[in-house]
Specification:
Number of helices: 2
Helix content: 55-70%
Strand order of the largest sheet: 1-2
Order of helices and strands: HEEH
Shape: elongated
Number of strands: 2
Structural class: mainly alpha
Distance between the termini: 99 Å
Radius of gyration: 34 Å
Amino acid sequence: MSRHLAVIASRMARAAAPILAIVALALAAPVAGADVAAAPAVHGAPDAKQDVGVFTGTFVNGMPLYRLPPISVVAHRSVDLGRIEREEQQARLRKMRAKLAVKHQGS
Protein backbone atom coordinates (compact mmCIF):
# COMPACT_ATOMS: atom_id res chain seq x y z
CA MET A 1 0.00 0.00 0.00
CA SER A 2 2.82 2.44 0.79
CA ARG A 3 4.23 1.86 -2.71
CA HIS A 4 0.84 2.79 -4.13
CA LEU A 5 0.83 6.03 -2.06
CA ALA A 6 4.38 6.83 -3.22
CA VAL A 7 3.32 6.48 -6.89
CA ILE A 8 0.32 8.74 -6.32
CA ALA A 9 2.47 11.34 -4.53
CA SER A 10 5.01 11.26 -7.33
CA ARG A 11 2.32 11.82 -9.97
CA MET A 12 0.81 14.67 -7.95
CA ALA A 13 4.22 16.32 -7.60
CA ARG A 14 4.81 16.10 -11.38
CA ALA A 15 1.37 17.58 -12.04
CA ALA A 16 1.82 20.35 -9.45
CA ALA A 17 5.19 21.57 -10.77
CA PRO A 18 3.81 23.23 -13.95
CA ILE A 19 0.93 24.74 -11.98
CA LEU A 20 3.33 26.21 -9.44
CA ALA A 21 5.49 27.60 -12.24
CA ILE A 22 2.45 29.28 -13.82
CA VAL A 23 1.39 30.78 -10.49
CA ALA A 24 4.94 32.05 -9.84
CA LEU A 25 5.07 33.70 -13.27
CA ALA A 26 1.64 35.24 -12.77
CA LEU A 27 2.73 36.72 -9.46
CA ALA A 28 6.11 37.91 -10.79
CA ALA A 29 4.73 39.63 -13.91
CA PRO A 30 3.26 42.68 -12.10
CA VAL A 31 6.47 43.10 -10.11
CA ALA A 32 8.67 42.98 -13.21
CA GLY A 33 6.56 45.64 -14.92
CA ALA A 34 6.37 47.91 -11.87
CA ASP A 35 7.38 51.51 -12.31
CA VAL A 36 10.37 52.34 -10.09
CA ALA A 37 9.41 56.02 -10.02
CA ALA A 38 6.06 55.13 -8.47
CA ALA A 39 7.71 53.63 -5.39
CA PRO A 40 6.44 55.01 -2.08
CA ALA A 41 8.49 57.73 -0.42
CA VAL A 42 10.77 56.83 2.45
CA HIS A 43 9.84 58.28 5.83
CA GLY A 44 11.86 61.43 6.45
CA ALA A 45 12.97 61.77 2.81
CA PRO A 46 12.07 64.90 0.87
CA ASP A 47 9.06 64.77 -1.43
CA ALA A 48 9.70 63.38 -4.91
CA LYS A 49 8.05 66.51 -6.35
CA GLN A 50 10.80 68.74 -4.95
CA ASP A 51 13.14 70.11 -7.61
CA VAL A 52 16.70 68.85 -7.46
CA GLY A 53 18.20 72.06 -8.80
CA VAL A 54 17.08 75.45 -10.10
CA PHE A 55 18.75 76.96 -13.15
CA THR A 56 20.38 80.26 -12.17
CA GLY A 57 20.38 81.65 -15.70
CA THR A 58 24.17 81.74 -15.92
CA PHE A 59 26.72 79.50 -17.61
CA VAL A 60 30.19 78.59 -16.36
CA ASN A 61 32.64 77.17 -18.91
CA GLY A 62 29.71 76.66 -21.28
CA MET A 63 27.78 74.59 -18.74
CA PRO A 64 24.52 75.72 -17.05
CA LEU A 65 24.82 76.61 -13.38
CA TYR A 66 22.18 75.20 -11.03
CA ARG A 67 21.41 76.15 -7.42
CA LEU A 68 20.95 73.03 -5.33
CA PRO A 69 18.80 72.78 -2.22
CA PRO A 70 20.60 72.98 1.14
CA ILE A 71 21.69 69.76 2.80
CA SER A 72 22.27 68.87 6.44
CA VAL A 73 25.46 67.11 7.49
CA VAL A 74 25.66 65.23 10.77
CA ALA A 75 28.98 64.07 12.22
CA HIS A 76 30.11 62.65 15.52
CA ARG A 77 32.89 64.54 17.26
CA SER A 78 34.47 61.33 18.53
CA VAL A 79 35.22 60.34 14.92
CA ASP A 80 36.74 63.76 14.18
CA LEU A 81 38.82 63.67 17.36
CA GLY A 82 40.14 60.22 16.46
CA ARG A 83 41.15 61.46 13.02
CA ILE A 84 42.90 64.50 14.50
CA GLU A 85 44.78 62.29 16.98
CA ARG A 86 45.98 60.01 14.17
CA GLU A 87 47.15 62.99 12.12
CA GLU A 88 49.03 64.44 15.09
CA GLN A 89 50.65 61.07 15.83
CA GLN A 90 51.72 60.71 12.19
CA ALA A 91 53.19 64.24 12.28
CA ARG A 92 55.17 63.38 15.44
CA LEU A 93 56.46 60.17 13.82
CA ARG A 94 57.54 62.07 10.67
CA LYS A 95 59.31 64.67 12.81
CA MET A 96 61.08 61.98 14.85
CA ARG A 97 62.15 60.11 11.69
CA ALA A 98 63.46 63.32 10.17
CA LYS A 99 65.54 63.98 13.32
CA LEU A 100 66.91 60.42 13.23
CA ALA A 101 67.78 60.75 9.54
CA VAL A 102 69.69 63.99 10.22
CA LYS A 103 71.45 62.39 13.20
CA HIS A 104 72.52 59.35 11.13
CA GLN A 105 73.76 61.53 8.26
CA GLY A 106 76.04 63.38 10.64
CA SER A 107 77.60 60.12 11.92
